[in-house]
């Protein structure tokens, strides 16, 4: 593979990141592994002793795990929707950031479903899902939807990687033999011929188009796990679009955070520019407003209608003595903060946008918790139970350990993957896109890059 | 493993025996809901049995293994249900005084611990001014069951006789049915259930629900194994006040053990209602409103142990019923 000047420049800049693992990376890897080990022990306890070790009981049958499940599938939208849409719209500035976005997608789509498995009492019977599938069940829809979505995102990520693998293969990198061999296999004989280029282009376009409806289906189906029940706070017609929107929103937030971290860590300021943060900030702002609108109309209708059963849940969520403060946090940090940080020119800076994203992402996790737990704590018939753990959910250390193990796995996969492929796609920088590389200097007022 | 095989073996042997008993029971008891109590074969009584070779043999019943619970039906039959039946329950709220005999009878019959209440009695207060009343609640065996709709593996199913049962050998424990049931009917085995000695090795059937299994969901099953024998569920039999009527909608009879009456007449005369009709779940349990109550509410509270009192304290206080004491 012949590289042009710009590609060479990007490649040389990132070469050390895939050639050397580095002491720091080892440190992080071990740190993450320790967390995962703790999670593994928690999982062992949960399997050996039964779900009694969790805070879940007959009323609150789902807890942290389901919130994590929605959360991880949510952030996977970074690659699917953001990168997919930007690809279709042929937005040039997307190129340095799509790999990060698609990596988020693939990794979080691996971790998300693990959390739903943690809710399952009989993991030894998982094959029943395929032996006796019932098409009426939203869980069956989920199995198929997530399976397809995961396959789709892996293909989408891989298609964008083939050219780069060919570059790594030909670059005589100073890496162990197995790694070179792996690059060779993964490059599947790509030499940059006309027909090869055409095939990759067509397939990438196709996948970009397909991944968007797939992603929308995945989160809609997920929301229907709740929407299809008769419970207050869940049984809502807007749950499908509400969840999809929240997912894209949180995905954007995680993407901004990841960009910030990599930019800092690998000194990629000339590729991941301030403009990238501003543009994604704009996207985040619009999504935040739309998400806020959905939130408002969801709670307004429930509160205004004040049906007895609904009001019970609303009361729990609004009451400062119960979930009121969390609800306030979820809305202030999840809606108001990011909108204002991006809207005010003075605060529209990469670091501040990244901090706002960080709080927004946490707020959206809290929001998922507030969707799950208060509803389950409000059954139709009074509980009249003297066992406190049956009345009120509080997560145990086992659940927290597994939650943090999930987050650690996310970081670990990210770290390992970024040592295997370059964070910024090299092959994307070709002749005509040279301006993109130096976007910072050349961009005009509107952020447009001259041809 | 070896032990497992042995258990399976005895299971198969038991099955032959129980199948034989079933044949007898089926011929002896034509009607499922008969007001007579079924007669158990006693010692030195000769019974006719159909041998596996197809011959009718007469043996002393002492040689038979009398098992209370009989996993007498195949898995398929347990899923299909009893042909021609449509089981219903009518609960007379005016008679309940929270004696809790139904709860303990249920736990005993199903070998469940005290913690597990498939049948529970709530103290319901419909509105601020309304007087509270005792509200026994089993599974409603809905005709439009939200739990069955959401099961991903068909572990919980609706039968032709109206029952909603669970196959705990298929259940994956996702708990979606528990989230979907608006009546909090289902319970989960959060850890290894304590299995009493006398049912160890018993073949599992969705109709008996025993033995319980960790990580699976369970609930009130209307005791179809007893219905096959023409027996009323233990909760119905145990109730000292005849609160529960159990029967067959097709036959239009329900019985509380003391009297057998017309189901349609009963729900017509007493203005029966179904709990939360507006949810559209179409329960198979009808409630007779707590009008002209036979016992004051306090009667169901005073004699309770402290831990149970705690459950209802709030409602009792709200209704100013505790001060009288």
What does this structure look like?
The complex is a heterodimer of chains A (451) and B (325). With 451 residues, chain A is an all-alpha fold. Chain A has helices at residues 5-19, 23-49, 64-75, 77-88, 98-118, 128-131, 138-170, 177-186, 194-227, 239-266, 274-305, 308-318, 324-343, 350-376, 388-391, 397-418, 434-437, 439-442. Chain A has a single domain (5-21, 55-379, 419-442), classed as Formate dehydrogenase/DMSO reductase domain (Formate dehydrogenase/DMSO reductase fold). In chain A, helix 2 packs antiparallel against helix 16 (397-418) and helix 9 (194-227) crosses helix 10. Chain A is globular, with a radius of gyration of 23 Å. The two termini of chain A are 25 Å apart. Residues 431-445 of chain A have low confidence and may be disordered. Chain B is of the alpha+beta class. Chain B has two domains: 2-63, no CATH class; 75-288, Alpha-Beta Plaits. Chain B is 26% helix and 16% strand. Chain B has ten helices and 13 strands. The radius of gyration of chain B is 21 Å and the shape is globular.
Layout: helices, strands, pairs:
The complex is a heterodimer of chains A (451) and B (325).
Chain A: H1 5-19, H2 23-49, H3 64-75, H4 77-88, H5 98-118, H6 128-131, H7 138-170, H8 177-186, H9 194-227, H10 239-266, H11 274-305, H12 308-318, H13 324-343, H14 350-376, H15 388-391, H16 397-418, H17 434-437, H18 439-442
Helix pairs in contact in A: 2-16, 3-5, 3-10, 3-14, 4-5, 4-9, 4-10, 5-7, 5-16, 7-8, 7-9, 9-10, 10-11, 10-14, 11-13, 13-14
Chain B: H1 2-28, E1 46-50, E2 56-60, H2 75-80, E3 87-92, H3 101-109, E4 120-124, E5 133-137, H4 146-150, E6 156-158, E7 164-166, H5 176-180, E8 187-188, E9 217-218, H6 224-228, H7 234-238, E10 244-248, E11 253-255, E12 260-262, H8 263-269, E13 285-288, H9 299-302, H10 306-318
Number of helices of chain B: 10
- Please tally the β strands of chain B and state the result: 13
Determine the N-to-C terminus distance of chain A: 25 Å
Number of helices of chain A: 18
The value of Rg of chain B in angstroms is 21 Å
Categorize the overall geometry of chain A.
globular
Strand-pairing-aware structural class of chain A: mainly alpha
Compute the average pLDDT of chain A.
90
Quaternary structure:
heterodimer
Distance between the termini of chain B: 60 Å
User: Largest sheet of chain A, described in full?
Assistant: none
Proportion of strand residues of chain A: under 5%
Question: So, CATH architecture of chain A?
Answer: Up-down Bundle
Structural class of chain B: alpha+beta
């Amino acid at each position: 593979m012949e590289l042009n000047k710009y590609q060479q420049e990007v490649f040389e800049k990132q070469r050390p990141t895939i050639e050397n693992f580095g002491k720091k990376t080892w440190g992080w890897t071990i740190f993450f592994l320790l967390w995962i080990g703790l999670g593994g022990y928690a999982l062992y306890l949960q399997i050996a002793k039964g779900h009694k070790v969790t805070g879940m009981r007959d009323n609150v049958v789902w807890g942290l795990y389901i919130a994590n499940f929605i959360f991880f599938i949510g952030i996977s939208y970074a690659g699917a929707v953001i990168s997919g849409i930007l690809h279709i719209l042929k937005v040039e500035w997307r190129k340095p950031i799509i790999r990060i976005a698609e990596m988020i997608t693939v990794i979080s789509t691996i971790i998300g479903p693990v959390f739903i498995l943690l809710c399952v009492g009989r993991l030894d019977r998982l094959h029943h899902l395929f032996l006796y599938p019932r098409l009426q069940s939203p869980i069956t829809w989920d199995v198929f939807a997530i399976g397809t979505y995961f396959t789709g995102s892996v293909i989408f990520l891989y298609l964008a990687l083939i050219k780069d693998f060919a570059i790594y293969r030909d670059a005589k990198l100073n890496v162990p033999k197995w790694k070179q061999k792996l690059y060779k296999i993964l490059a599947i004989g790509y030499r940059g011929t006309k027909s090869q280029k055409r095939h990759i282009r067509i397939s990438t376009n196709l996948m970009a188009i397909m991944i968007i409806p797939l992603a929308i289906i995945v989160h809609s189906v997920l929301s229907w796990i709740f929407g299809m029940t008769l419970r207050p706070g869940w049984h809502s017609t807007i749950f499908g679009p509400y969840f999809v929107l929240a997912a894209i929103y949180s995905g954007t937030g995680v993407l901004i955070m990841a960009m910030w971290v990599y930019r800092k860590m690998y000194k990629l300021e000339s590729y991941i520019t301030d403009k990238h943060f501003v543009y994604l900030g704009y996207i985040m702002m619009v999504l935040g407003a739309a998400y806020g609108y959905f939130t408002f109309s969801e709670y307004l209708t429930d509160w205004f209608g004040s049906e007895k059963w609904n009001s019970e849940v609303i009361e729990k969520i609004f009451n400062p003595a119960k979930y009121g403060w969390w609800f306030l946090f979820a809305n202030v940090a999840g809606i108001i903060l990011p909108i204002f940080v991006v809207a005010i020119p003075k605060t529209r800076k990469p670091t501040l946008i990244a901090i706002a994203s960080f709080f927004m992402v946490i707020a959206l996790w809290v929001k998922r918790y507030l969707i799950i737990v208060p509803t389950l704590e409000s059954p139709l018939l009074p509980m009249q139970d003297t066992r406190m753990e049956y009345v009120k959910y509080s997560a145990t250390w086992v659940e927290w350990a597994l939650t943090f193990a999930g987050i650690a796995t996310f970081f670990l996969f990210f770290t390992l993957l970024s040592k295997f492929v370059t964070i910024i796609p090299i092959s994307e920088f070709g002749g005509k896109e040279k301006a993109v590389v130096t976007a910072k200097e050349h961009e005009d007022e509107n952020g447009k890059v001259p041809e | 493993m070896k032990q497992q095989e042995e258990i399976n073996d005895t299971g198969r042997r038991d099955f032959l025996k129980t199948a034989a008993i079933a044949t007898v029971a089926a011929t002896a008891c034509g009607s499922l809901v008969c007001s007579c109590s079924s007669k158990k074969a006693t010692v030195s009584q000769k019974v006719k049995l159909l041998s596996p070779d197809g011959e009718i043999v007469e043996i002393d019943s002492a040689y038979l293994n009398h098992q209370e619970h009989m996993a007498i039906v195949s898995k398929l039959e347990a899923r299909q249900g009893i042909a021609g039946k449509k089981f219903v329950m009518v609960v007379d709220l005016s008679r309940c005084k929270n004696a809790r005999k139904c709860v303990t009878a249920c736990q005993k019959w199903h070998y469940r611990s005290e913690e597990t209440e498939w049948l529970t009695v709530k103290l319901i207060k419909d509105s601020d001014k309304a007087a509270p009343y005792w509200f026994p609640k089993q599974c409603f065996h809905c005709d439009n069951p939200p739990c069955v709709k959401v099961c991903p593996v068909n572990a919980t199913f609706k039968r032709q006789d109206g029952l909603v049962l669970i196959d705990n050998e298929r259940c994956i424990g996702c708990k979606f049915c528990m989230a979907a049931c608006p009546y909090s009917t289902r319970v989960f085995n959060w850890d290894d259930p304590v299995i009493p000695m006398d049912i160890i090795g018993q073949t599992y059937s969705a109709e008996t629900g025993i033995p319980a299994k960790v990580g699976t969901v369970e609930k009130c099953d209307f005791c179809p194994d007893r219905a096959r024998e023409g027996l009323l569920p233990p909760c119905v039999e145990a109730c000292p006040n005849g609160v529960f009527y159990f029967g067959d909608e097709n036959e239009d009879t329900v019985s509380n053990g003391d009297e057998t009456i017309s189901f349609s007449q009963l729900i017509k005369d007493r203005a029966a209602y179904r709990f939360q009709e507006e949810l559209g779940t179409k329960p198979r349990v009808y409630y007779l409103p707590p009008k002209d109550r036979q016992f004051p509410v306090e009667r169901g509270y005073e004699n309770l142990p402290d831990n149970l009192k705690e459950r209802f304290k709030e409602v009792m206080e709200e209704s100013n019923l505790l001060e009288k004491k």
